[in-house]
């Protein structure tokens, strides 16, 4: 949600990919792809954003904390980031999502968005459940 220098961003993508592979992820057994090259993420985020009300996003604690750290000048990208997260989850019709405690409210937003979409357009998205780790 913060502007990055293009060269730094490209290097970060390569470094992250290398770290994932170094952790032992086997690309023969899983899909490893650059999400920004899949336009459906942004397209679904737009659709879901049209179904999500602004007051709900403004109540999220992460918005309040990040906005405060940006001298009360939160960006639209920061405000709508949880909707993009919902699109990332729902695009693949995920049923279980590993999350940390700090992301539970974002997953609850995802659940609400899925239920709202399904009520309006018919059963399409499974309502994902959180997988919380004790670590």
UniProtKB/TrEMBL annotation:
UniProt cross-references to InterPro entries, sorted A to Z: aa-tRNA-synth_Ic, Rossmann-like_a/b/a_fold, Trp-tRNA-ligase, Trp-tRNA_synthetase
Pfam families: tRNA-synt_1b (PF00579)
Keywords: Aminoacyl-tRNA synthetase, ATP-binding, Ligase, Nucleotide-binding, Protein biosynthesis
GO MF, any single term: ATP binding
Membrane-spanning residues: none
GO biological process entries: mitochondrial tryptophanyl-tRNA aminoacylation
GO cellular component, as recorded: mitochondrial matrix
EC assignment: 6.1.1.2
Family to which the UniProt record says this protein belongs: Belongs to the class-I aminoacyl-tRNA synthetase family.
Protein name: tryptophan--tRNA ligase
The organism of origin for this protein: Ploceus nigricollis
């Amino acid at each position: 949600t913060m502007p990055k220098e293009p060269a730094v961003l490209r290097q970060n993508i390569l470094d992250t990919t290398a770290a994932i592979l170094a952790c032992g992820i086997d690309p023969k057994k899983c899909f490893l792809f650059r999400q920004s090259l899949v336009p459906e993420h942004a397209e679904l985020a737009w659709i879901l954003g049209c179904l999500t009300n602004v007051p709900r996003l403004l109540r999220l604690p992460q918005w309040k904390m990040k906005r405060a750290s940006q001298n009360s000048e939160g960006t639209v990208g920061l405000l709508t980031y949880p909707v993009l997260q919902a699109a990332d989850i729902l695009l693949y019709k995920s049923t279980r999502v590993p999350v940390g405690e700090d992301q539970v409210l974002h997953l609850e937003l995802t659940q609400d968005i899925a239920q709202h979409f399904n009520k309006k357009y018919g059963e399409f998205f499974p309502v994902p459940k959180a997988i919380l780790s004790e670590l």
